Amino acid sequence: MPDILPVHLAIIMDGNGRWAKQRKMPRIMGHKKGVDVVNKVVRHASKLGIKYLSLFAFSMENWQRPGDEVSFLMRLLDEYIEKELNTILRENIRFTVTGNMEMIPEGTRNKLMNASDRSADNTGMTLNLALSYGGRAEIADAARQIARLAASGKLRPDDINEDNFLQFMYHPEIPDVDLLIRTSGELRISNFMLWRIAYSELYFTGKLWPDITEEDIDEAIEDFAGRTRRFGKTDDQVDI
Questions:
Q1: By residue range, what is the domain housing residue 108?
Q2: HEC profile for 87-155?
Q3: Is the pTM of this model over 0.85?
Q4: Residue 9 β-bridge partners
Q5: Which residue in 194, 224, 213, 221 sits closest to 98, CA to CA?
Q6: Residue 31, by phi and psi: left (phi above 0), alpha (psi -120 to 50) or beta?
Q7: pLDDT at site 237
Q8: pLDDT at 233 exceeding the cut of 60
Q9: Among 97, 165, 167, 127, CA closest to 10
């Protein structure tokens, strides 16, 4: 087990479609294989003692994909909740969803909210699934709420700061990301948790998500543990 763990580990799970294409399979087969890896990574992170695990499962931009692929992804999400809810409850995992739930089909949305409600009192790892999510949209939603309060006289503009701005973000109880992993070799953030990754350590791997193993997660955490996080300070001001 790595000596130093990130409190909040976030992963951009990328490469399902390319994994399938390399094997001359339909893209949906890559997504199905990707769910198997999600199960392994969630269990592994929980056993390691990670407090928060955020997985970027479906972005706002992903709604632009072909309709049949989007429909399959929603069905796959249904199946994941149905199959894994008992495991989530048994392993004391708290399940949350981050994103624009209004765009999620009603049946799927109800299953997600049920899983969230039933696991709300669990005290182990928080599994935060980013669905129909965009980092800019989250910030804009927060700014919209603040603007309404300011317009009504309930909040003075001069009193707005980073701390109380966070209270209007999705799940304000979830802390900043310590380590962000992106798979598949892409070197982008892709509009993910823009507010919370301000000082995250970034780790990129060329492996496609369906090929990721528990050992790959350990390797990323070991790399994280060897870094010095200064948060704008000098080497002399931090413990090295």
A1: 8-134+175-226
A2: HHHHCCCEEEEECCHHHCCHHHHHHHHHHHHHCCCCCCCEEEEEEEECHHHHHHHHHHHHHHHHHCCCC
A3: yes
A4: 53, 179
A5: 194
A6: alpha
A7: 58
A8: no
A9: 127
Which of 3, 14, 100, 121 is catalytic? The answer is 14
Q: Give the residue, 72 or 240, on which the prediction is more confident.
A: 72
Token digits of residue 50: 């990670």
Structural domains of the chain, count: 1
Q: What is the CATH number of the domain that holds 22?
A: 3.40.1180.10
Is 166 part of a structural domain of the chain? no
Catalytic pick among 3, 36, 39, 62: 62
What would the pLDDT profile of 168-194 be if each residue is shown by its tens digit? 999 999 999 999 999 999 999 999 999
The verdict on residue 31 lying in a domain is yes
Q: What is the mean pLDDT of the chain?
A: 93
62 is known as an active-site residue: yes
| 99 assigned to some structural domain | yes
> Residue type at 184?
S
- 14 is annotated as an active-site residue: yes
Residues 118 and 151: beta-carbon distance below 8 Å: no
Tokens of 51: 């407090």
What single-letter DSSP state applies at residue 23? T
pLDDT in tens, 13-41: 999 999 999 999 999 999 999 999 999 99
3-state helix, strand, coil in the chain (%, to 5): 50, 15, 35
Helix 67-90 vs helix 106-118: angle between axes, to the nearest 10 degrees? 20
Residue 156 lies in a domain: no
The closest of 105, 106, 80, 107 to 95, measured between CA atoms, is 80
Within the chain, what is the greatest distance between any pair of CA atoms?
60
